Structure formats: C-alpha cells, structure tokens
C-alpha cells in the first residue's frame, strides 16, 4: 500500500493504521527525485502479507500537514488463495533433503548442475539506444545449501535503475522446465543503453556450501507399501559439505543506433511513448506577479533521462533553469510515470504574451519511427498591477498627523547622534586609506594549480571519508566531483547532467572511448555501492585512485 501526500513540505506525525487482517512485512518512505528544490510530495509504502482469504478494507492513515491534521481515503482489496502464476506449485514438490542424498554412482558435479544454478533473464536481447531493458539475475536451488552472493553485476555501459528495494534473501517458488525450485533474486534492474554496440552483461557469482548425505543404499529402493523410501534413514550415511562457486553464463545484448533518417533537429534522446501537457495559473496574472508554468511529460520509456523540451518564450519573459520533479514507479517495467519541469518568472508588462506550441520529439521503438508530442499554444493575459490603498495614510492626511511635540524633539536628538556616528566612521576610513597608501605591498602572483592538484582537492572530502569509514559520504563525493568537472568544463546545465547526455557530449568532444567507459564505470560503481553498502576500505582506496586519474585526464582535455 502506498500513502501519498502532494503539495506540502511540512509533514509531521505521519501515522499508519493498524492492519488487523494483514501482517506488516516492511514500511519505508519514498520521496520522488528532485533537483534544485525540496520535493513537494511524500509517500509511505507499507508491504502487507494477507493472513487469510476474503474482502478487506485498508484503513486510512493520518498526518499533520502544514499544521493541519488530514486523513487519507480507505481502499478495498480482495485476497485470493495461492501465488499469482504459481497456483499449481506445491512446496512439497521440493524435497531438499531427498535431493541432497548421494546414492552409489551419483556424481556431485552433475547433481549440482541439475539442482543448483544461476540464470540471467532479459526482456529482450536486441534494443535501441535509450530503450528500456529489464534484466533479472536469479539463483535456483533444489538442494540443502547455504549460499551468499559474492559478486553482483555492475552493468557498465547502461544507466541503471533498481527495481527492488532490498535483496532480503527470502526465497520464492518457481517452476522451470517442469520442475519446482526455490529462487532468490540476486539483482533485478531496468537498464537504459547509453551507446550502440554489443555488451556482454557482467556475471553474477554466488558461493554455496551444499550439505550432502552420502549413503550406500541403492537409489530408488522401495519401502513397504510400495512407496518410495524417501523418509527412511539411509544405510551407513556420512555427511559431505561441498563448497562451490556458481556464475551466470555470458549474455550478450546488442544495442542498435537510433535511425538518423528523419531524426528531428530537436530530438534529445527520449525513447518510448509520451504525451506533453502544459499547466498555467488559473487565476488572473498581474504585472510583477510570480508566474509558474509546468511542462509535464508523461508516458513510458527512459523518463529518468529526459531533459526539458525547447520552449520559445515571448520577448520580455526571462526564466531560469526549471525545477524538476519526477513521479514514476520504478517497480514497473517499462518505466512509466511523469516528469515535470516548472518554470518561474515575473510577469512582464501588461498585455497578451503567446507561448507557441511546445514540441517534444521522441523515438517510438515499437513502431521504430520518430514522433512528436505537442500541446496547443498558450496566451497569458497580464493585467495592470494591483494598487494597494493605504487607508491609514489617507486618514492621517485628512485628520492631521496627531503626533505630540515631545516626539519631534526626541527625533531631532536621535538624528544628531546618528550624524555624529556617521562622521566618525567616514573619518576613520579616510585615515586608514592614507595609511595604506604610504605602504606599498607587492601583490603576490597566484600560481595556476595543475590538473592533478585540482583533482586532488576535489577528492579531499572523499579521502577524509575513507579515514572515518564513511562509505556513503565517500561515494557521494566521488559522484559530485565527476559531475562538477564535466558540468564546469563544458557548461552543462544541471538538468542535462545524466549519463545518457554526458556520454553523447564526451563522444562529440572526441574524448577517447576508454575514458568515457571509465567515467560511466565509476558512476555505476558509486550507484551500486550506495545501494548495497558494505564495501571494504581497500575498494574505496582503489576507486579514489581511478577517480583522480580520470578527473586529471578530463581537466587536461582541451574544451
């Protein structure tokens, strides 16, 4: 369940109700990604597990918003038996104890290959640059084993969005090729390819200790009654703990370039299906008023990489970089939702101001052609400024000042004191200037720092974070340093500081492919480390060395 508050910044005492018919598995907050300003929406997500079948009402939550207590709506839900898509699977079909018995003639390697393995599944093997792609890494098991993830794939070359909040190790049951397995997610993500080419997905690795029981009893021996003797104690059993490391097989994704034929001049890399909507103030606009215009792009595709569409503002309308608000559900594939760009400006002189129709170009991978989403032109009618009458001033003008004489004398004394203080301050400044003129101090020549020194200074806070073992601060500082160098060197607007556009920019600036690859790889490693904490200090020391060399190389590059 997701409780959402929109249009508020001061939220306190958020209380979720008591769910008597459900078990609360997890609760967490979710704030949409925003840039430049605080978000004005907030969500609390509650993961529930139904205790029984039936129809139930999800109770309302309460919160104090902007000083006022509000209450959410209730929602009805129907709970049916079974697991969606797995209604015919019985957990009793998976007898890990039986599968882990080694009978005479059994081969351990063959036993493992058949009952314990890793798989990588992709929504497709061929896609266009920017087209969403879902990749799922899973571990399948029918054995009595303890496993842990040794390596989760970093997926270099793609912009990555996680589809799972936490890999908690809770198994599910899934049928594959007619057999039931316990499955665990290793990683589930949406990928957005940044460049064309063939990419081999990084492997995932798990280390498992399998608890085998070796017996001299022949396989398939029957007990009385004609049933398989699965529960009988094996003859002369002995325990074997076998350690093994499993990896996913190499999996190649072919990323095709976007067509150059009929590509619009204003195309900026949006891939999917989108519509555009523009919202203007519903109330009258007066000269000097702060006007806010929202341009919202909705649909599905690479929403996270979308940049503001070009807008031809009327003469006299000056806007800064827009405030960006993203509202999408990362758990759905392909990514769907909306991205809003809010522009603010002071209403110019009176009259009508026309904002021409805004065109947003995108590539539809399903139909493999470019399309345009557009809205109608908008006319803003600016009225004269509202004159506020000062009633008290008019009353004084009609009735006289009404000020007693003693207050005039008091005001005169205050003015004399202020004048004396001002005279002394001016005299003191003149004396200091005369004194400074007599002493000629040479101005030191500032030496331009080397690129390596600049890189070292940018990473100084990251170095301190290593010393204090603050992993989150460390990876955040590495990311900030990379974005700062690229943004400052090539004057990149904050709204375009994402991997898709920076990859294209660096390629246009003839930056070596290896440098671009290293840039994206470091960002990917930071994102993954922030998502899955627990990296060692040695990993951080290695990464800060790579980052310093990369930053030095970028700073040395001619613009």
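Sequence proposed for the structure above (559 residues):
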């Amino acid at each position: 369940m997701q409780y959402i508050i929109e249009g508020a910044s001061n939220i306190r005492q958020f209380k979720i109700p008591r769910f008597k018919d459900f078990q609360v598995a997890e609760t967490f907050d979710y704030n949409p990604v925003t840039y430049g300003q605080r978000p004005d929406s907030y969500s609390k997500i509650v993961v529930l597990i139904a205790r029984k079948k039936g129809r139930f009402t999800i109770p309302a939550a309460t919160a104090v918003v902007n000083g006022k207590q509000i209450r959410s709506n209730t929602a009805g839900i129907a709970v049916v038996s079974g697991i969606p898509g797995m209604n015919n699977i019985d957990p009793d079909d998976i007898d890990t104890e039986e599968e882990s018995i080694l009978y005479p003639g059994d081969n351990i390697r063959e036993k493992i290959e058949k009952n314990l393995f890793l798989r990588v599944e992709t929504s497709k093997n061929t896609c266009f640059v920017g087209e969403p792609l879902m990749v799922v890494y899973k571990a399948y098991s029918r054995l009595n084993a303890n496993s842990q993830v040794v390596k989760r794939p970093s997926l270099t070359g793609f912009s990555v969005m996680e589809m799972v909040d936490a890999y908690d190790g809770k198994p599910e049951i899934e049928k594959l090729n007619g057999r039931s397995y316990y499955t665990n997610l290793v990683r589930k993500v949406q990928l957005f390819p940044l460049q064309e080419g063939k990419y081999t997905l990084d492997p995932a690795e798990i280390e498992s200790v399998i608890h085998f029981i070796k017996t001299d009893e022949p396989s398939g021996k029957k007990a009385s009654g004609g049933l398989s003797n699965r529960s009988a104690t094996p003859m002369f059993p002995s325990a074997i703990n076998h350690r093994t490391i499993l990896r996913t097989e190499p999996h190649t994704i072919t990323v095709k370039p976007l067509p150059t034929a009929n590509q619009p001049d204003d195309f900026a890399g949006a891939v999917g299906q989108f519509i555009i909507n523009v919202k203007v103030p519903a109330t009258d606009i007066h000269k000097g008023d702060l006007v806010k215009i929202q341009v919202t792009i909705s649909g599905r595709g690479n929403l996270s990489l979308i940049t503001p569409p070009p807008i031809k503002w009327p003469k006299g309308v000056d806007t800064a970089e827009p405030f960006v608000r993203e509202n999408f559900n990362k758990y759905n594939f392909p990514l769907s939702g909306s991205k809003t760009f809010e522009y603010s400006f002071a209403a110019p002189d009176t009259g009508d101001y026309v904002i021409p129709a805004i065109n947003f170009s995108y590539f539809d991978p399903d139909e493999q052609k470019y399309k345009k989403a557009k809205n109608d032109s908008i006319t803003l009618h600016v009225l004269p400024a509202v004159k506020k009458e000062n009633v008290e001033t008019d009353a004084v003008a009609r009735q006289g000042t009404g000020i007693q004489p003693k207050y005039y004398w008091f005001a005169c004394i205050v003015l004399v004191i202020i004048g004396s203080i001002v005279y002394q301050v001016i005299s003191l400044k003149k004396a200091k200037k005369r004194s400074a003129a007599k002493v000629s101090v040479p101005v030191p020549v500032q030496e331009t720092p080397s690129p390596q020194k600049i890189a070292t200074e940018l990473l100084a806070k990251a170095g301190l974070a290593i010393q204090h073992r603050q992993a989150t601060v460390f990876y955040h500082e590495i990311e900030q340093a990379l974005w700062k160098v690229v943004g400052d060197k090539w004057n990149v607007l904050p709204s375009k500081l994402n991997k898709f556009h920076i990859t294209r920019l660096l390629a246009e600036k003839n930056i070596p492919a290896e440098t671009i690859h290293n840039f994206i790889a470091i960002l990917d490693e930071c994102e993954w480390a922030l998502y899955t904490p627990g990296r060692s200090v040695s990993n951080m020391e290695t990464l800060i060395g790579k980052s310093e060399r990369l930053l030095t190389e970028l700073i040395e590059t001619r613009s």
